[in-house]
Write a structure and sequence with these properties.
The structure is a single chain. The protein is an alpha/beta fold. It is elongated, with a radius of gyration of 37 Å. It has a four-stranded antiparallel sheet. It has a four-stranded mixed sheet with strand order 10-11-9-12, with helices on one face. A four-stranded mixed sheet has the order 27-26-29-28, sandwiched between helices. It is built from 27 helices and 29 strands. The structure holds one RNA strand.
Length: 876
RNA sequence: GGGCGGGUAGUUCAGUGGGAGAACGUCUGCUUGACGCGCAGAAGGUCGUAGGUUCAAUUCCUACCCCGCCCA
């Protein structure tokens, strides 16, 4: 075995072994199921750190539950990602100097499918490199036959139930993507802008109203000015007619509660075709709707002289013209939220348009109840509130997209009588007039419409499959907090509506992976770190371990390369500890290992600590505290197993004259190491498999090894307490040696004075531990017969330590050291004493706390007096 | 404007109603037969500010300040 662990040599090998042997495969049986559906990444995308985190968490849960004996299904798949994928192919075409219109719909879709074939395997291959133990035989795609069938079924049912409708409404139009997007796909960014005050004269020319707006170009579509009905300032003007500057259009002054009298001038221009609030006001007052901006965000013919101008250019010209004609009253700086397209960051144009919507209110109600009643639980709990708040204020969902790549809306329009016919297959003739001139709606559905069905469409719905019956509802959904609204909420809605049952029992939300400076990783910033690069340089295990530790559920995680190095060092530590074990296990025979009666203190101690580790790791996994579970393993392996147990076991293996003791050491070493690898396997699947396979084991893979079960009868409190004493004595001697500059290679003489009989017996029996780990010769005494003249001094757990340093000791230095130590002890002692002197404390604090403080007082007092005595001797 | 998260060692972050932790960095030693991606030792923190509850608050409550995110 090489001295440095090389992940490249083992990771690929084991993944192939697992996959070829179908260890990820899940089949329906009579065990208890544990199922997860993978949040489907973009089919043509590539793995980023967010995926790496999300899938690492899922894999940990999956591997752990599988080892626990659940029938575990982790179902993978990919998403067609409408806008993103289409945009990429269009980009590709643009390089050839073509547009999608040059190809036409059909040819264009062929290109996208070809693109999907070319890049579709990339991300799933990358997930394999991460170690994802999902059932690839069940991999799905949101546009495969089954999922498409589910989409049509859902659309038709909702349509028949009146929960899908087509209507004119203000939608968010992205002039660059050339499609509508839903409300949650709009990102609101606070931007510095101006508030323009514009005077609208009355038609008789005697009066005027000044309105304030941040978007003066929309005035071309104004059809009214609204004031609050209770606003005294404008009461006399309500009902009068105004003349729109620049265009000369006449329009009324209306009163509406919507107006906030305290904002701007208290008078609002109304543009029903380009603002959602104005749209509502317009409906209430039967106002016309005048669209002045077209789909390229260029002013149209309704804009009169401004036709053909880009919206920003138009704004400039309008301001100039208003100013010249005396209508511009003033301009103020004003910060306001501007909607941007989440995909391309273009400023969204609210626009009147006829689209398909899902009526959300009635669907949201059961989804609210399911969470309120605890049938779905969010982890961490605080996300419940975010979810409920959104659900309770839900608005209808605009589901049509002006794209070609996606699930085409299954509705045909009759060109004769305008009837709309919803159907899975193209109807032959109009159900109303019998005409055969039918045309399918050109639009496709929002990508999230199909992902909303993911937990059941992937299991076969609308067919009644055994898988659907067995694995639904899934056990837990693991996803980022950024898509609670996009995805989690909609899955809950559709699961409850179509399956009559929640889609998952728990939702485990994690944060975002940020760069070292705390910024979101993004292409435009170029601050992303490619997980594949990391896997190549540090190994998948290190990446996984780093992503899981030092971070708490739901919180964001900063990516630091130093932490990655730390994880790699940990892997290397495991590797070398195992190397040590394996080098000393060549003649190990588990069958003939001596029983418990042969165990040394160190054996009993490490076995007990291992049990504690089993208990804690399992407990933390149970509560989704994966970072804490990983930390427990890190500390157990590095500190207890490597730094103490291995050191203690060395002499028994190297130059053990006692064959039985050697066999015993081998047995404990092998068993603890194997068990620890099993506990660590969900986190670091590759290195643990490699080591496990080299150790004596049963079964074909660590993946199928039973999860270690906590056995309280193997906890040994006494061994732990006794080891604690020895460890502290050792640490104390090491400290003295280091402080007094005793060369590390030199064996020191140490006198231990122990008055307590039990402790003395303990040290007597295991003095080899102290001699080995503190490099010394120990002389044990019940009391001090003669004060060592030149010696450094220390106290640990009632054990007085003298390290004679004839000729080496600097009395002044030793005095200074002891004084410093005494000061620290006395300070602490004072704190404890004052606590114990407090009547209320004694009366009200729990007895065990009081006992603990008393014990501490005794220990500290003893320590202080020992140091004081020593000081007196040295000074005298 | 509303909500949420964070403010703990030089840095990045865990954690807890009863003696402040880790990693990295720093300092001192070390060819100790698993590992220098290592070993041993050390220094370093009025746990954001001000109140309150409690025998006891870094931890619970209230207000405020700063940073970040989400929603309107």
């Amino acid at each position: 075995m090489p001295t440095i662990y090389d992940p490249r040599a083992v990771e690929e090998k084991w993944y192939r072994y697992w996959e070829e042997n179908k260890f990820f495969r899940a089949e329906v049986d009579d065990r208890e199921p544990f199922s997860i559906v993978m949040p489907p990444p973009n089919v043509t995308g590539q793995l980023h750190m967010g995926h790496a985190l999300d899938n690492t968490l899922q894999d940990i849960l999956t591997r752990w539950r599988r080892m626990q004996g659940y029938n575990t299904l982790w179902l993978p798949g990919t998403d067609h990602a409408g806008i993103a994928t289409q945009a990429k192919v269009e980009e590709q075409l643009a390089k050839e100097g073509k547009s999608k219109y040059d190809l036409g719909r059909e040819k264009f879709l062929e290109r996208v499918w070809a693109w999907k074939e070319q890049y579709g395997g990339r991300i799933t291959h990358q997930l394999r490199r991460l170690g994802a133990s999902c059932d690839w035989d069940r991999e799905r795609f949101t546009m495969d036959e089954g999922c498409s069938e589910a989409v049509k079924e859902v659309f038709l049912r909702l349509y028949e139930q009146g929960l899908i409708y087509r209507d004119y409404y203000i939608v968010n139009w992205c002039p660059r993507c050339h499609t509508t997007i839903s409300d949650i796909e709009v990102e609101h960014l606070d931007k510095p802008g101006q508030l323009y005050y514009i005077k609208y004269p009355t038609s008789d020319g005697r009066d005027a109203i000044t309105v304030a707006t941040t978007r003066p170009e929309t005035m071309l579509g104004d059809v009214a000015v609204a004031v609050h009905p209770g606003d005294e300032r404008y009461r006399h003007l309500v009902g009068k007619t105004l003349v729109l500057p620049l265009l000369g259009r006449e329009m009324p002054v209306i009163a509406d509660e919507y107006v906030d009298p305290s904002f701007g001038t208290g008078a609002v221009k109304i543009t029903p075709a380009h603002d959602p609030n104005d749209f509502e006001v317009g409906r209430r007052h039967n106002l016309p709707q005048v669209r002045v901006i077209n789909k390229d965000a260029v002013m149209n013919e309704e804009a009169g002289p401004y036709q053909g101008l880009d919206r920003w250019e138009c704004r400039k010209r309008i301001i100039k013209d208003l100013n010249e004609q005396g209508y511009l009253v003033k301009v103020e700086d004003h910060n306001h939220a501007v909607g941007h397209c989440y995909r391309c960051n273009t400023v969204i144009e609210p626009m009147l348009s006829r689209q398909w919507f899902v009526r959300m209110k009635p669907l949201a109600e059961p989804a609210i109840q399911a969470v309120k009643e605890g049938r779905i639980r969010f982890v961490p709990e605080r996300f419940t509130k975010i979810y409920l708040n959104w659900m309770e204020n839900i608005r209808d969902w605009c589901i049509s997209r002006q794209l070609w790549w996606g699930h085409r809306i299954p509705v045909w329009y009759c060109r004769n009588c305008e009837e709309a016919i919803a159907a899975k297959e193209p109807p032959r003739k109009c159900t109303c007039c019998g005409s055969t001139r039918l045309e399918q709606d050109p639009d496709v559905l929002d990508t999230w419409f199909s992902s909303a069905l993911w937990p059941f469409s992937t299991l076969g719905w609308p067919e009644k499959t055994p898988e659907l019956d067995y694995y639904y509802p899934t056990s837990v959904l693991v996803t980022g907090r950024d898509i609670i609204f996009f995805w989690v909420a909609r899955m809950i809605v559709s699961g409850l509506h179509f399956m009559r049952e929640v889609p998952f029992r728990e939702v485990f939300i994690h944060g975002l992976v940020l760069d070292a400076l705390g910024r979101k990783m993004s292409k435009s910033l170029g601050n992303g770190v490619d997980p594949i690069d990391v896997i190549e340089s540090h190994g998948a295990d290190s990446l996984r371990f780093m992503l899981v530790t030092g971070n708490t559920p739901g919180n964001d995680l900063r990516f630091h390369f130093e932490r990655l190095d730390g994880a790699r060092n940990f892997a290397n530590k495991i590797w070398n500890a195992s190397r040590f074990a394996l080098m000393n296990l060549q003649d190990y025979d588990p069958a003939s290992a001596p029983g418990r009666e042969a165990h040394t203190l160190a054996d009993r101690w490490i076995l007990s600590r291992y049990q504690a580790c089993v208990q804690e790791v399992t407990r933390f996994l149970d509560s989704y505290e994966l970072g804490e579970a990983a930390r427990v393993l890190y500390e157990f392996i590095w500190d207890e197993f490597c730094d103490w147990y291995i050191e203690l076991v060395k002499p028994r293996l190297y130059r053990g004259q006692d064959a039985r003791d050697r066999a015993c050491a081998q047995d404990v070493l092998a068993r603890v190491l194997r068990g620890t690898m099993e506990l660590l396997h969900p986190f670091m699947p590759f290195i643990t498999e490699e080591i496990w396979q080299r150790l004596p084991h049963q079964g074909r893979t660590i993946m199928q090894a039973p999860w270690p079960v906590y056995r309280p009868e193997l906890r040994d409190e006494r061994a732990e307490a006794e080891m604690a004493v020895l460890m502290e004595v050792i640490r104390s001697i090491r400290h003295i040696r280091s402080e007094m500059n005793v060369p590390p290679g030199k064996t020191a003489d140490v006198i231990l004075v122990v008055t307590d009989g039990h402790t003395r017996d303990l040290i007597q029996e295991w003095s080899s531990y102290i001699q080995g780990l503190a490099r010394c010769r120990v002389q044990l005494k019940p009391e001090l017969d003669r004060v060592p003249p030149q010696a450094a001094h220390g106290v640990a757990r009632g054990v007085e330590i003298y390290v004679p340093l004839a000729g080496l000791i600097d009395i002044d230095r030793e005095l200074a050291r002891l004084k410093k130590e005494l000061a620290a002890v006395e300070k602490e002692l004072k704190r404890v004493e004052s606590k114990l002197g407090n009547e209320s404390f004694l009366a009200k604090a729990p007895a065990e706390v009081v006992e603990k403080e008393k014990a501490r007082e005794k220990e500290l007092a003893g320590k202080a007096s020992a140091i004081r005595e020593r000081l007196a001797v040295l000074a005298g």
